[in-house]
Amino acid sequence: MTKRVHGSCTTILVGKAASIDGSTIIARNEDGNVPLQPQKFVYVHPADQPRHYQAELSAFNLDLPDNPLGYTSTPEAVAGKGLWAAAGINSENVAMTATETITTNARILGIDPLVPEGLGEESITTIVLPYIHSAREGVQRLGALLEQYGTYETNGICFSDKDEVWYFESIAGHHWAAIRIPDDAYVVAPNRFNITDFDFNSADCMASADLEELITTYHLNPDRDGYNLRHIFGSASAKDTRYNNPRAWYGQLYFNPEFDTEPIDQDLPFICRTDKKISIEDVKYVLSSHYQNTPYDPYSNAGTEEEKKRFRPIGINRNQELHILQIRNDVPAAIAGIHWLAFGPNTFNAVVPFYANVTDTPAPYRDTTSTYDPRNMYWLFSTLAVFGDTDFTLYQDFEDLFEQNTVAACRHLQIEADAHYADQADPVEYLTAVNAKMADIALAKATTLLGQMVALGAPKMKLQFTLND
Prior knowledge:
6-stranded antiparallel sheet
């Protein structure tokens, strides 16, 4: 059986009244346990969805329903290590991202141990997303599967449709809880148990049927009033103060600079609100961030060497892909789902707004090879990141312009497609072709950036000698 590994991601959720255009947004960095784990972007047609699923990392298997929906996804490009479909939008405009690895504690694991032969991250998107017609239905399906089969790991999973955003956390082997994110709120969730205040009597909270009873029976609640699930089921470790809390702190500081908090705080809020409406560019900035304008930025000259290594940044060399799943409310359903995507470390990439209602995905994003090929966007963006990391200050302005110009050009195509798709003989094929044009833009501009970086870096090579002749 393939060895199980744990990645470590960062999630951002945005309710429809908190976003700049009324969209719901769920986004996540998919971070591997090591750099360079090639990813690809595919569209799974109903006919290609398996009717029996067998996991590769455990004995978990099940028969799947006969009526799957089509969906986008970003699985592993190399076979044999599990599917890891990661995230996508189905043909009913329901989005899902799975998973955010989260922490737990010995108290609940002693009551409900993890299940070595249960389901895990490699399987969750594939066995849930094609069969749900709303975000709430996604919570219910995943909860039922988790209760029946158990899980060998604890994770956070997110669902959205045009109206609702839900955050789901598995709790030990067979238990779970989920909460609807208020329309006017946002969330920044790192790799720890995240849900705080929970109301078992609210229609906006769901959980395994016996969860409240379990808390009471086993004396799990350390608080005198209410249910703070992070306190009950989560961690408050020294690792959290270095690895998890600082990421939530920086994201919250970006959206709410008035917050009076510290990177190591164990009780940073879960659900937050800000006066500023949140854009796709805001989400991308936070998911690419490395503590800019603080002493903790590894690229900064402001901090000490110890400070620059103190906290785990959100943008990191283990970023494999970044997805921002947007369900729009100001356009017809046929063009509402947008699967924004970027590959590789986020400091030197750009997200592209791919339509989800298509028949195929663009070749530079779909045909990722297992070995290096700069014609693939995964490998090209990885090249830019490795190159850019050698002298971030030298290349930063060029990268910023590349990202702005790439997103602007793709947004322009999107505006045109939104206006004209309904006039086409085959609107779905038209959107598929528009996605291909967006991919070509990203490929061309990324290649140009690489050339600019070579031109900037060549005169600075140590291997030089001039005779002035």
